[in-house]
Write a structure and sequence with these properties.
Helix content: 25-40%
CATH architecture of the largest domain: 3-Layer(aba) Sandwich
Oligomer: single chain
Largest sheet: 7 strands, mixed
Shape: globular
Radius of gyration: 19 Å
Order of helices and strands: HEEEEHEHEHHEHEHHEHEE
Number of domains: 2
Distance between the termini: 38 Å
Strand content: 25-35%
Structural class: alpha/beta
Mean pLDDT: 85
Strand order of the largest sheet: 7-6-5-8-9-11-10
Length: 258
């Protein structure tokens, strides 16, 4: 994660152009506890969210991380749970010959890539990404992210709020996958908070075809949100998933079946 304080000047001296001194000592999730390997962290790109917060793309030892206002949001080193998000939804739809999926949040493309790997040629996947810069970063061949997945002919990429698609496409999807934030707290933009409220969950229920599912990714367990899903008409189960295989950091999936 990014360092919370600037290192001493002697540490920052001589860093190459583009390397942020304050992030020069960033502990990777795979490093032993308490160990800082002094690998430089490079700011590759930045953008502003709709409500004026700074979003950054950093590279550290070959891995990429997106942060909002300095808070890590996602990393290429921790994507097991994002892939599992796709697996849960696709496995639920295995018997449907031409399923329609909606993914809220492109991120670093792991959920989309995993879904495409499990779906047949007749499937369609709509991806809604609120921040245009995230799409640009994924398309940039220098970063090696999800450019090929975005260009898959089964993919419809929409720049905008996933909430609008949920509201507009009644019974339009067999599954909706939401990974637009760290959970129901709305970290990326304040408007994301509304997406996890009861009214929006009711709209999601209407947008999903009978027998389909809503799968929501979260950093932490959230019993209050689970109850909210149940009040919206979903039959809910929860799954704790390791952020990376063999790791001790866990994320949560909330699976609601219509």
């Amino acid at each position: 994660m990014p360092a919370s304080r600037s290192p001493p000047n002697s540490l920052a001296a001589g860093l190459p152009s583009g390397v942020e001194p304050h992030a020069a000592c960033m502990r990777d999730i795979s490093d032993p506890p308490g160990v800082c390997l002094m690998k430089p962290t490079t700011l590759r790109a930045e953008a502003m969210t709709a409500d004026g917060r700074r979003m950054t793309l950093h590279e550290h030892d070959g891995a990429f991380q997106i942060s909002i206002a300095g808070v890590p949001l996602m990393s290429t080193r921790q994507h097991h749970s994002e892939r599992r998000l796709a697996a849960v939804a696709c496995d639920h739809l295995r018997s449907r010959p031409a399923p329609r999926l909606l993914i809220g949040g492109l991120g670093l493309g792991f959920t989309l890539t995993a879904a495409l790997g499990r779906l047949g040629p007749e499937a369609k996947v709509t991806v809604a990404e609120l921040v245009p810069a995230v799409i640009e970063w994924n398309r940039n061949p220098a970063y090696g992210l999800a450019g090929s997945a975005i260009d898959d002919p089964r993919v419809e990429l929409v720049v905008g709020d996933v909430a609008n698609l949920i509201r507009e496409r009644r019974a339009g999807f067999d599954a909706i996958l939401l990974d637009v934030d760290n959970g129901a707290s709305g970290l990326t933009t304040a408007s994301n908070h509304d997406l996890y409220q009861t009214q929006s969950l009711h709209l999601a229920r209407v947008a999903i075809r009978p027998g389909g599912c809503l799968v929501v990714w979260s950093t932490d367990n959230d019993p209050v949100f689970v109850e909210r899903m149940e009040r919206a008409g979903f039959s809910v189960t929860t799954e704790r998933v390791a952020a990376y295989p063999g790791g001790k950091l866990f994320n949560w999936l909330f699976v609601g079946v219509c």
